[in-house]
Amino acid sequence: MVLKMSKGFYQRFFYISSSLILWGCASSVNVEVSPTPKPPELIQEKPVNSLGGYFYSNGENAFGPFTQRMVQKCQGLNGGSVCNTQQWPEALFLKAYGQGRCPDGSRLNQILGYCVEGNQALGPFSKELVATCKDADGGDACQSTRWGSSFLYKLIQTKNLFTGRPPQFVLLAFDGSYSLDAWKKSRNFTQSLAKKNILAHFTYFISGVYFVNNEKRNLYKPPGGKGQGRSAIGWGGTPQEINPRLEQLNKAYQEGHEIGSHAVGHFDGSRWSETDWTREFEYFDRFIFDVYKINNLKGSLAFDRSAIQGFRAPELGQSPGLYKTLKKEGFRYDTSKVAAANYWPKLENGVWNFPLASLTTAMTRKNVLSMDYNFYYAHSKAKPNSSHAQRYEEDMFQTYLKYFQSNYSGNRAPVHIGHHFSAWNQGAYWNALFRFAEAVCGKPEVRCVTYSVLADFMDLQTPEQIAIYQKGAFSKLDKQK
What we know:
The protein has 481 residues and is α/β, with parallel strands linked by helices.
Protein backbone atom coordinates (compact mmCIF):
# COMPACT_ATOMS: atom_id res chain seq x y z
CA MET A 1 0.00 0.00 0.00
CA VAL A 2 1.47 3.29 -1.09
CA LEU A 3 0.42 6.68 0.11
CA LYS A 4 -0.43 8.99 -2.75
CA MET A 5 0.00 12.63 -1.81
CA SER A 6 -2.01 15.58 -2.97
CA LYS A 7 -0.19 17.89 -5.34
CA GLY A 8 0.46 20.51 -2.68
CA PHE A 9 1.80 17.98 -0.21
CA TYR A 10 3.82 16.13 -2.82
CA GLN A 11 5.68 19.25 -3.86
CA ARG A 12 7.14 19.67 -0.38
CA PHE A 13 10.56 18.21 0.02
CA PHE A 14 13.01 17.25 2.69
CA TYR A 15 16.79 17.42 2.81
CA ILE A 16 18.66 14.60 4.53
CA SER A 17 21.93 15.96 3.20
CA SER A 18 22.67 18.14 0.20
CA SER A 19 20.52 15.71 -1.80
CA LEU A 20 16.77 15.84 -2.14
CA ILE A 21 14.21 13.35 -0.86
CA LEU A 22 10.64 13.89 -2.02
CA TRP A 23 8.00 13.28 0.64
CA GLY A 24 5.80 10.85 -1.22
CA CYS A 25 8.36 9.88 -3.84
CA ALA A 26 6.63 6.54 -4.13
CA SER A 27 3.42 8.06 -5.38
CA SER A 28 4.53 9.74 -8.59
CA VAL A 29 6.75 7.09 -10.14
CA ASN A 30 5.87 3.72 -11.58
CA VAL A 31 5.17 1.40 -8.69
CA GLU A 32 5.92 -2.29 -8.65
CA VAL A 33 3.20 -4.10 -6.76
CA SER A 34 4.78 -7.06 -5.05
CA PRO A 35 2.68 -8.72 -2.39
CA THR A 36 2.95 -12.46 -1.88
CA PRO A 37 1.62 -14.08 -3.98
CA LYS A 38 2.28 -11.61 -6.77
CA PRO A 39 -1.00 -10.31 -8.27
CA PRO A 40 -1.82 -10.43 -11.96
CA GLU A 41 -0.01 -7.96 -14.17
CA LEU A 42 -3.19 -6.20 -15.21
CA ILE A 43 -4.05 -4.24 -12.14
CA GLN A 44 -5.40 -0.76 -11.58
CA GLU A 45 -4.87 1.95 -9.07
CA LYS A 46 -7.91 3.04 -7.09
CA PRO A 47 -8.36 5.79 -4.48
CA VAL A 48 -9.45 4.91 -0.97
CA ASN A 49 -10.54 8.39 0.02
CA SER A 50 -9.85 12.04 -0.67
CA LEU A 51 -6.99 12.14 1.86
CA GLY A 52 -4.48 10.44 -0.43
CA GLY A 53 -4.71 6.73 0.35
CA TYR A 54 -5.01 4.35 -2.59
CA PHE A 55 -4.75 0.67 -3.37
CA TYR A 56 -4.22 -1.76 -6.21
CA SER A 57 -6.96 -4.00 -7.56
CA ASN A 58 -7.56 -6.53 -10.33
CA GLY A 59 -11.14 -5.35 -10.49
CA GLU A 60 -12.34 -7.69 -7.77
CA ASN A 61 -9.66 -8.06 -5.11
CA ALA A 62 -7.41 -5.61 -3.26
CA PHE A 63 -3.83 -6.66 -2.53
CA GLY A 64 -1.92 -6.23 0.75
CA PRO A 65 -0.18 -5.43 2.96
CA PHE A 66 -2.89 -5.38 5.58
CA THR A 67 -2.34 -3.98 9.05
CA GLN A 68 -3.05 -5.97 12.19
CA ARG A 69 -5.97 -3.69 12.99
CA MET A 70 -7.40 -4.25 9.51
CA VAL A 71 -7.20 -8.01 10.04
CA GLN A 72 -9.05 -7.64 13.35
CA LYS A 73 -11.72 -5.52 11.67
CA CYS A 74 -11.95 -8.06 8.84
CA GLN A 75 -12.68 -10.81 11.34
CA GLY A 76 -15.31 -8.63 12.98
CA LEU A 77 -16.88 -8.18 9.54
CA ASN A 78 -17.15 -11.97 9.17
CA GLY A 79 -14.40 -12.11 6.58
CA GLY A 80 -13.46 -15.58 7.76
CA SER A 81 -10.36 -17.24 6.29
CA VAL A 82 -10.00 -14.43 3.75
CA CYS A 83 -8.65 -12.21 6.54
CA ASN A 84 -5.44 -14.25 6.64
CA THR A 85 -4.76 -14.05 2.89
CA GLN A 86 -3.04 -11.48 0.69
CA GLN A 87 -6.16 -10.80 -1.40
CA TRP A 88 -9.40 -9.37 -0.05
CA PRO A 89 -12.60 -8.44 -1.88
CA GLU A 90 -12.56 -4.71 -2.53
CA ALA A 91 -15.64 -3.96 -0.45
CA LEU A 92 -14.18 -5.77 2.56
CA PHE A 93 -10.84 -4.02 2.13
CA LEU A 94 -12.46 -0.57 2.01
CA LYS A 95 -14.53 -1.23 5.14
CA ALA A 96 -11.43 -2.34 7.05
CA TYR A 97 -9.16 0.45 5.74
CA GLY A 98 -10.63 3.20 7.92
CA GLN A 99 -11.16 6.90 7.30
CA GLY A 100 -7.58 8.14 7.41
CA ARG A 101 -4.85 8.75 4.90
CA CYS A 102 -3.08 5.58 6.06
CA PRO A 103 -4.82 2.26 6.76
CA ASP A 104 -6.08 1.70 10.29
CA GLY A 105 -3.28 0.74 12.63
CA SER A 106 -0.62 2.66 10.70
CA ARG A 107 0.44 6.28 10.30
CA LEU A 108 2.41 8.37 7.84
CA ASN A 109 6.13 8.74 8.52
CA GLN A 110 6.80 12.02 6.76
CA ILE A 111 10.53 11.37 6.53
CA LEU A 112 10.04 8.13 4.62
CA GLY A 113 6.94 9.22 2.73
CA TYR A 114 5.30 5.88 3.50
CA CYS A 115 2.77 4.62 6.00
CA VAL A 116 4.32 2.64 8.83
CA GLU A 117 2.97 0.04 11.22
CA GLY A 118 5.24 -0.31 14.22
CA ASN A 119 8.76 -0.60 12.81
CA GLN A 120 7.64 -1.67 9.34
CA ALA A 121 7.03 0.51 6.29
CA LEU A 122 4.10 -0.45 4.06
CA GLY A 123 4.69 -0.66 0.32
CA PRO A 124 4.50 -1.44 -2.52
CA PHE A 125 7.73 0.43 -3.11
CA SER A 126 8.92 2.31 -6.16
CA LYS A 127 10.91 0.49 -8.84
CA GLU A 128 13.87 2.73 -8.03
CA LEU A 129 13.85 1.66 -4.38
CA VAL A 130 13.35 -2.01 -5.32
CA ALA A 131 16.41 -1.78 -7.60
CA THR A 132 18.40 -0.15 -4.79
CA CYS A 133 17.29 -2.96 -2.48
CA LYS A 134 18.54 -5.58 -4.94
CA ASP A 135 21.86 -3.77 -5.30
CA ALA A 136 22.15 -4.02 -1.52
CA ASP A 137 21.66 -7.80 -1.73
CA GLY A 138 18.24 -7.65 -0.21
CA GLY A 139 17.21 -10.79 -2.06
CA ASP A 140 13.58 -11.90 -2.21
CA ALA A 141 12.69 -9.40 0.51
CA CYS A 142 12.94 -6.67 -2.12
CA GLN A 143 9.73 -7.97 -3.71
CA SER A 144 7.73 -7.82 -0.47
CA THR A 145 5.31 -5.08 0.53
CA ARG A 146 6.69 -4.75 4.07
CA TRP A 147 10.19 -3.48 4.76
CA GLY A 148 11.74 -2.56 8.05
CA SER A 149 11.53 1.22 8.42
CA SER A 150 15.23 1.46 9.28
CA PHE A 151 16.10 -0.67 6.23
CA LEU A 152 14.07 1.60 3.95
CA TYR A 153 15.67 4.66 5.51
CA LYS A 154 19.15 3.28 4.80
CA LEU A 155 18.19 2.61 1.19
CA ILE A 156 16.98 6.18 0.82
CA GLN A 157 20.24 7.39 2.34
CA THR A 158 22.22 5.25 -0.12
CA LYS A 159 20.18 6.44 -3.08
CA ASN A 160 20.79 10.07 -2.15
CA LEU A 161 24.48 9.79 -1.25
CA PHE A 162 23.79 10.51 2.39
CA THR A 163 26.62 12.41 4.10
CA GLY A 164 25.72 11.45 7.64
CA ARG A 165 24.81 15.03 8.53
CA PRO A 166 21.32 15.48 10.02
CA PRO A 167 18.98 18.29 9.00
CA GLN A 168 18.81 21.29 11.28
CA PHE A 169 15.32 20.97 12.72
CA VAL A 170 13.68 24.13 14.03
CA LEU A 171 10.52 23.60 16.10
CA LEU A 172 8.20 26.58 16.49
CA ALA A 173 5.29 26.04 18.87
CA PHE A 174 2.51 27.95 20.60
CA ASP A 175 0.81 27.31 23.94
CA GLY A 176 -2.72 28.61 23.92
CA SER A 177 -5.67 28.55 21.60
CA TYR A 178 -8.11 31.26 22.70
CA SER A 179 -7.33 34.31 20.58
CA LEU A 180 -8.77 34.36 17.08
CA ASP A 181 -6.33 37.12 16.15
CA ALA A 182 -3.40 34.95 17.23
CA TRP A 183 -4.69 31.99 15.22
CA LYS A 184 -5.09 34.16 12.12
CA LYS A 185 -1.82 36.04 12.55
CA SER A 186 0.26 32.88 12.96
CA ARG A 187 -1.43 31.10 10.04
CA ASN A 188 -1.13 34.16 7.80
CA PHE A 189 2.56 34.40 8.62
CA THR A 190 3.37 30.90 7.38
CA GLN A 191 1.28 31.55 4.28
CA SER A 192 3.32 34.68 3.58
CA LEU A 193 6.52 32.65 3.97
CA ALA A 194 5.23 30.05 1.54
CA LYS A 195 4.85 32.76 -1.09
CA LYS A 196 8.61 33.32 -0.68
CA ASN A 197 9.24 29.57 -1.07
CA ILE A 198 10.00 29.24 2.66
CA LEU A 199 8.21 26.35 4.34
CA ALA A 200 7.37 26.53 8.04
CA HIS A 201 4.72 24.91 10.22
CA PHE A 202 3.75 25.44 13.83
CA THR A 203 2.76 23.02 16.57
CA TYR A 204 -0.19 24.34 18.58
CA PHE A 205 -0.56 22.96 22.11
CA ILE A 206 -4.22 23.64 22.87
CA SER A 207 -6.03 23.93 26.23
CA GLY A 208 -9.27 21.99 26.64
CA VAL A 209 -11.16 24.70 28.56
CA TYR A 210 -11.13 27.02 25.54
CA PHE A 211 -13.47 24.60 23.78
CA VAL A 212 -16.06 24.38 26.59
CA ASN A 213 -18.66 27.14 26.92
CA ASN A 214 -18.97 28.92 30.26
CA GLU A 215 -22.29 27.32 31.13
CA LYS A 216 -20.83 23.82 30.83
CA ARG A 217 -17.79 24.46 33.01
CA ASN A 218 -19.06 22.13 35.75
CA LEU A 219 -18.35 19.22 33.42
CA TYR A 220 -14.75 19.61 34.59
CA LYS A 221 -13.55 18.49 37.98
CA PRO A 222 -9.79 19.11 37.82
CA PRO A 223 -7.28 16.91 39.64
CA GLY A 224 -5.58 18.07 42.80
CA GLY A 225 -8.74 19.18 44.57
CA LYS A 226 -9.03 22.44 42.62
CA GLY A 227 -12.81 22.38 42.74
CA GLN A 228 -15.45 21.53 40.17
CA GLY A 229 -15.78 24.00 37.31
CA ARG A 230 -12.49 25.75 38.04
CA SER A 231 -9.86 26.74 35.50
CA ALA A 232 -6.67 28.78 35.82
CA ILE A 233 -7.24 30.46 32.45
CA GLY A 234 -10.99 30.90 32.11
CA TRP A 235 -13.33 29.17 29.67
CA GLY A 236 -14.32 29.27 26.04
CA GLY A 237 -17.08 31.87 26.23
CA THR A 238 -20.36 31.25 24.43
CA PRO A 239 -20.89 28.53 21.81
CA GLN A 240 -20.98 31.34 19.25
CA GLU A 241 -17.49 32.39 20.38
CA ILE A 242 -16.18 28.82 20.32
CA ASN A 243 -17.37 28.10 16.79
CA PRO A 244 -14.93 30.45 14.96
CA ARG A 245 -12.15 29.13 17.22
CA LEU A 246 -12.95 25.65 15.94
CA GLU A 247 -12.81 26.97 12.39
CA GLN A 248 -9.31 28.28 13.02
CA LEU A 249 -8.28 25.00 14.62
CA ASN A 250 -9.46 23.01 11.62
CA LYS A 251 -7.86 25.36 9.12
CA ALA A 252 -4.54 25.20 10.93
CA TYR A 253 -4.58 21.41 10.85
CA GLN A 254 -5.59 21.31 7.19
CA GLU A 255 -2.71 23.66 6.33
CA GLY A 256 -0.16 21.22 7.76
CA HIS A 257 0.23 22.59 11.28
CA GLU A 258 0.11 20.17 14.19
CA ILE A 259 -2.30 20.08 17.12
CA GLY A 260 -0.93 18.92 20.48
CA SER A 261 -2.24 18.81 24.04
CA HIS A 262 -1.69 21.47 26.70
CA ALA A 263 -4.03 19.65 29.09
CA VAL A 264 -7.28 21.24 30.22
CA GLY A 265 -7.35 23.82 33.02
CA HIS A 266 -3.72 24.99 32.89
CA PHE A 267 -2.92 23.89 36.42
CA ASP A 268 0.57 23.05 37.68
CA GLY A 269 0.65 19.24 37.76
CA SER A 270 4.04 18.85 39.39
CA ARG A 271 2.42 17.02 42.32
CA TRP A 272 -0.15 15.06 40.36
CA SER A 273 -0.35 11.29 40.51
CA GLU A 274 -0.70 8.89 37.61
CA THR A 275 -4.45 8.80 38.33
CA ASP A 276 -4.61 12.61 38.24
CA TRP A 277 -2.93 12.80 34.85
CA THR A 278 -5.06 10.00 33.43
CA ARG A 279 -8.19 11.93 34.49
CA GLU A 280 -6.85 15.16 32.97
CA PHE A 281 -6.18 13.48 29.64
CA GLU A 282 -9.66 11.92 29.69
CA TYR A 283 -11.16 15.37 30.14
CA PHE A 284 -9.01 16.72 27.33
CA ASP A 285 -10.18 14.02 24.90
CA ARG A 286 -13.80 14.56 25.87
CA PHE A 287 -13.73 18.34 25.58
CA ILE A 288 -11.91 18.33 22.23
CA PHE A 289 -13.49 15.36 20.47
CA ASP A 290 -17.03 15.91 21.78
CA VAL A 291 -16.71 19.66 21.31
CA TYR A 292 -19.57 20.04 18.84
CA LYS A 293 -21.93 17.98 21.01
CA ILE A 294 -20.99 19.75 24.24
CA ASN A 295 -21.54 23.18 22.69
CA ASN A 296 -24.55 22.18 20.59
CA LEU A 297 -22.78 23.18 17.39
CA LYS A 298 -22.92 21.74 13.90
CA GLY A 299 -19.75 20.50 12.25
CA SER A 300 -16.84 18.17 12.85
CA LEU A 301 -13.13 18.29 13.53
CA ALA A 302 -10.70 17.85 10.65
CA PHE A 303 -8.66 15.36 12.70
CA ASP A 304 -9.17 12.52 15.17
CA ARG A 305 -7.47 11.46 18.41
CA SER A 306 -4.57 9.85 16.55
CA ALA A 307 -3.45 13.32 15.46
CA ILE A 308 -2.70 14.32 19.09
CA GLN A 309 0.84 12.97 19.36
CA GLY A 310 2.54 15.42 21.71
CA PHE A 311 2.14 17.15 25.05
CA ARG A 312 3.42 20.20 26.88
CA ALA A 313 2.58 20.51 30.57
CA PRO A 314 1.09 23.82 31.74
CA GLU A 315 3.78 25.81 33.56
CA LEU A 316 6.05 22.87 32.62
CA GLY A 317 4.65 21.19 35.73
CA GLN A 318 5.89 17.61 35.46
CA SER A 319 5.63 14.75 37.93
CA PRO A 320 6.56 11.04 37.94
CA GLY A 321 2.86 10.36 37.42
CA LEU A 322 2.95 12.20 34.09
CA TYR A 323 5.68 9.98 32.72
CA LYS A 324 3.84 6.85 33.79
CA THR A 325 0.88 8.06 31.78
CA LEU A 326 2.01 9.58 28.48
CA LYS A 327 2.89 6.37 26.67
CA LYS A 328 -0.32 4.66 27.80
CA GLU A 329 -2.33 7.64 26.58
CA GLY A 330 -0.86 7.32 23.08
CA PHE A 331 1.60 10.23 23.14
CA ARG A 332 4.82 9.96 21.12
CA TYR A 333 6.67 12.93 22.60
CA ASP A 334 6.76 15.37 25.50
CA THR A 335 7.99 18.98 25.46
CA SER A 336 7.75 19.74 29.18
CA LYS A 337 11.40 19.50 30.20
CA VAL A 338 14.49 21.71 29.87
CA ALA A 339 17.96 20.78 28.62
CA ALA A 340 21.15 22.27 27.23
CA ALA A 341 20.86 24.03 23.89
CA ASN A 342 22.85 21.29 22.09
CA TYR A 343 20.81 18.35 23.46
CA TRP A 344 19.87 15.58 21.03
CA PRO A 345 16.53 13.92 21.87
CA LYS A 346 16.35 10.54 23.59
CA LEU A 347 13.52 8.19 24.42
CA GLU A 348 12.48 8.54 28.04
CA ASN A 349 9.66 6.47 29.53
CA GLY A 350 8.76 5.36 26.02
CA VAL A 351 8.29 8.87 24.59
CA TRP A 352 10.68 11.27 22.90
CA ASN A 353 12.01 14.05 25.13
CA PHE A 354 11.88 17.31 23.15
CA PRO A 355 12.91 19.89 25.77
CA LEU A 356 13.07 23.65 25.71
CA ALA A 357 16.59 25.05 25.81
CA SER A 358 18.40 26.86 28.60
CA LEU A 359 19.83 30.08 27.12
CA THR A 360 21.54 33.34 28.05
CA THR A 361 20.08 36.39 26.36
CA ALA A 362 22.36 38.04 23.82
CA MET A 363 22.04 41.66 24.98
CA THR A 364 20.71 41.70 28.54
CA ARG A 365 22.68 38.60 29.67
CA LYS A 366 19.73 37.02 31.50
CA ASN A 367 19.22 33.29 32.04
CA VAL A 368 16.05 32.21 30.23
CA LEU A 369 14.36 29.28 28.56
CA SER A 370 13.65 29.36 24.85
CA MET A 371 10.11 30.56 25.54
CA ASP A 372 8.58 34.02 25.28
CA TYR A 373 7.19 34.20 28.84
CA ASN A 374 10.69 33.69 30.26
CA PHE A 375 11.95 36.64 28.22
CA TYR A 376 8.94 38.68 29.35
CA TYR A 377 9.74 37.95 32.98
CA ALA A 378 13.49 38.52 32.57
CA HIS A 379 12.94 41.80 30.73
CA SER A 380 10.15 43.43 32.73
CA LYS A 381 9.17 41.08 35.58
CA ALA A 382 6.18 39.95 33.48
CA LYS A 383 4.69 43.45 33.54
CA PRO A 384 4.16 45.65 30.48
CA ASN A 385 6.98 48.06 29.65
CA SER A 386 6.29 49.41 26.19
CA SER A 387 9.10 51.98 26.33
CA HIS A 388 11.69 49.22 25.87
CA ALA A 389 9.71 46.98 23.51
CA GLN A 390 12.10 47.43 20.60
CA ARG A 391 15.10 46.51 22.73
CA TYR A 392 13.29 43.44 24.08
CA GLU A 393 12.45 42.34 20.55
CA GLU A 394 16.06 42.69 19.43
CA ASP A 395 17.34 40.85 22.49
CA MET A 396 15.11 37.85 21.76
CA PHE A 397 15.90 37.91 18.04
CA GLN A 398 19.64 37.95 18.61
CA THR A 399 19.37 35.27 21.31
CA TYR A 400 17.44 32.95 19.01
CA LEU A 401 19.90 33.59 16.17
CA LYS A 402 22.83 32.74 18.43
CA TYR A 403 21.08 29.57 19.60
CA PHE A 404 20.36 28.56 16.02
CA GLN A 405 23.80 29.34 14.62
CA SER A 406 25.58 27.45 17.39
CA ASN A 407 23.58 24.30 16.62
CA TYR A 408 23.53 24.76 12.84
CA SER A 409 27.32 24.92 12.63
CA GLY A 410 27.75 22.55 15.58
CA ASN A 411 26.05 19.25 16.33
CA ARG A 412 22.73 20.11 14.64
CA ALA A 413 20.66 19.47 17.77
CA PRO A 414 17.03 20.53 17.17
CA VAL A 415 16.18 24.14 18.02
CA HIS A 416 13.08 24.45 20.23
CA ILE A 417 11.12 27.71 20.42
CA GLY A 418 7.97 28.02 22.56
CA HIS A 419 5.57 30.97 22.48
CA HIS A 420 2.10 31.92 23.70
CA PHE A 421 -1.01 33.49 22.21
CA SER A 422 -0.15 36.69 24.10
CA ALA A 423 1.33 39.87 22.61
CA TRP A 424 3.44 40.84 25.63
CA ASN A 425 5.38 44.12 25.54
CA GLN A 426 3.55 45.40 22.47
CA GLY A 427 4.09 42.20 20.52
CA ALA A 428 7.89 42.36 20.83
CA TYR A 429 8.21 38.60 21.16
CA TRP A 430 5.89 37.74 18.28
CA ASN A 431 7.86 40.16 16.11
CA ALA A 432 11.13 38.54 17.13
CA LEU A 433 9.76 35.05 16.45
CA PHE A 434 8.59 35.98 12.98
CA ARG A 435 11.88 37.72 12.16
CA PHE A 436 13.77 34.66 13.35
CA ALA A 437 11.66 32.21 11.34
CA GLU A 438 12.05 34.24 8.17
CA ALA A 439 15.81 34.50 8.72
CA VAL A 440 16.50 30.78 9.22
CA CYS A 441 13.74 28.62 7.74
CA GLY A 442 14.94 29.04 4.16
CA LYS A 443 18.57 28.17 4.84
CA PRO A 444 20.14 25.00 3.36
CA GLU A 445 19.31 21.82 5.27
CA VAL A 446 17.07 23.68 7.72
CA ARG A 447 13.59 22.27 8.33
CA CYS A 448 11.04 24.33 10.27
CA VAL A 449 8.61 21.50 10.90
CA THR A 450 6.13 20.22 13.43
CA TYR A 451 7.15 18.08 16.36
CA SER A 452 5.59 14.97 14.84
CA VAL A 453 7.97 15.27 11.88
CA LEU A 454 10.92 15.43 14.27
CA ALA A 455 9.50 12.32 15.99
CA ASP A 456 9.33 10.61 12.59
CA PHE A 457 13.01 11.36 12.07
CA MET A 458 13.99 10.23 15.56
CA ASP A 459 12.10 6.95 15.17
CA LEU A 460 14.54 6.04 12.38
CA GLN A 461 17.70 6.67 14.40
CA THR A 462 19.54 4.11 16.52
CA PRO A 463 20.95 5.07 19.94
CA GLU A 464 24.40 4.76 18.38
CA GLN A 465 23.47 7.21 15.62
CA ILE A 466 22.02 9.68 18.14
CA ALA A 467 25.29 9.49 20.10
CA ILE A 468 27.19 10.35 16.91
CA TYR A 469 24.93 13.33 16.34
CA GLN A 470 25.34 14.47 19.93
CA LYS A 471 29.11 14.51 19.49
CA GLY A 472 28.81 16.32 16.15
CA ALA A 473 30.84 13.52 14.56
CA PHE A 474 29.81 14.20 10.97
CA SER A 475 31.00 16.37 8.13
CA LYS A 476 29.95 19.99 8.43
CA LEU A 477 28.15 22.05 5.83
CA ASP A 478 30.44 23.93 3.45
CA LYS A 479 29.76 27.53 4.47
CA GLN A 480 30.70 28.80 1.02
CA LYS A 481 27.85 26.78 -0.44
